[in-house]
Design a protein that fits this description.
Length: 212
């Protein structure tokens, strides 16, 4: 699976951001988002393996609003395996990593959060429209999630973000939803919300390191 890893310029940086692009995107799409959220983090960014009419995705669809559940599971298994392998290869801790996903990338990230024991610190999911009822048994205690949505977004509605909020909270996650006035594009306001939301997570990771 194609990916990009950028090691932090900060010596011994412990924080890592894991990026999942939107439909038609690539592994470089969310680098600006990552830099705004935490410019000192390591970055691991994936490119989806699925081709939908020339557009890159992380799983197949049967229609615009219906997932191919078999593809979702197969690709989820693949990405989970890659995350475990790459965290070892690049020597970073998933427990000090935060996922950032946009649109289709937010949806595969939601699937991973709800169905695998990733152990990540949290996730920032932008414009998600998660439409699967598949949910694993593992809980998400001590996991912070930020969901951002546009009030005028007709592709992934604000209501769908609140539906995902309930699914994540049912597994014990601490979930915050932030709405903007925009549509399906990523707005500057979302980037600032992500930066502010991430600050206590960064502080917590760094405080833990001081105790070691």
């Amino acid at each position: 699976m194609k990916h990009l890893y950028i090691k932090s310029r900060k010596e011994n940086a412990k924080e890592t951001l894991i990026l999942f692009h939107g439909t038609g995107g690539r592994e470089t799409d969310l680098l600006e988002v990552a830099t705004t959220v935490n410019s000192e983090a390591n970055i691991l960014s994936f490119r989806g393996d699925v081709d939908e009419n020339g557009q890159t995705r992380f799983f197949k669809r049967l229609s615009l609003k219906q997932y191919d559940e078999q593809s979702l599971k197969e690709e989820g298994d693949k990405i989970y395996g890659e995350l475990k392998k790459l965290s070892s290869d690049y020597n970073f801790e998933l427990g000090k990593a935060v996922i950032i996903g946009y649109s289709n990338g937010a949806n595969i990230a939601a699937y991973l959060m709800l169905n695998y024991d990733l152990g990540v610190r949290g996730a920032m999911l932008m414009h998600s429209a998660y439409r699967s009822e598949i949910t694993g048994k593992d809980m998400l205690f001590d996991t912070d999630v930020l969901l951002t949505a546009g009030a005028q977004d007709m592709v992934a509605t604000a209501g769908e973000s609140y539906t995902l909020k309930r699914k994540l909270e049912n597994k014990g996650a601490n979930v915050t939803v932030k709405l903007t006035d925009g549509s399906h594009e990523i707005s500057p306001m979302e980037l600032m919300e992500g930066h502010v939301w991430y600050m206590p997570i960064k502080k917590s990771i760094r405080d833990e390191d001081k105790l070691l």
